[in-house]
Amino acid sequence: MPPQEQADLWMALRDRMKVNWHEMTLQEKKAAYWIAFGPHGPRALDPPGETKKVFGYTALAIVAAGVLFAIERMFARPPPKTMNAQYQAMTNEYLKAQKTEPITGVSSEGYTGKGMIQSKPRKGPPPGEDED
């Protein structure tokens, strides 16, 4: 429908909607409802292919993040020598010798926790024998 006809129809319908709605015909009620609540604005249907486009861009962003993460990991420094189970076990022994946190910590009676150990065991010589 041409824009001029749409405007004329809307103006006529708008004038008709000012009367009591019980006096309007069923066709006029349906047209008024369609104009007020039809599929336009926020109720408009998604354009064809919108779901594929959103999924594609989301997948692309996830892949780009993964590539950036991998590149960053390739050029990262190795973990510090303190991040291994042997060094952390030696830290536990040091804390026990110093009687650090005697009420609830590693030095307390009956302590059953891991203490400072949070890493996997290290491959290679103990930390004291490293030549770093």
Radius of gyration: 36 Å
Poorly predicted sequence stretches spanning 5 or more consecutive residues: none
Overall shape: elongated
- Relative helix content: 40-55%
What is the helix/strand order?
A: HHHH
Descriptive account of the structure:
With 132 residues, this protein is mainly α. The chain is built from four helices and no strands. It has helices at 3-17, 26-37, 50-74, 85-98. The radius of gyration is 36 Å and the shape is elongated.
Features of this protein?
132 residues, mainly alpha, 4 helices, 0% strand, elongated
In brief:
50% of the residues lie in helices and 0% in strands. It contains four helices and no strands.
Q: Any chance you could write out the topology, listing elements then pairs?
A:
Blueprint: H1 3-17, H2 26-37, H3 50-74, H4 85-98
Helix pairs in contact: 1-2
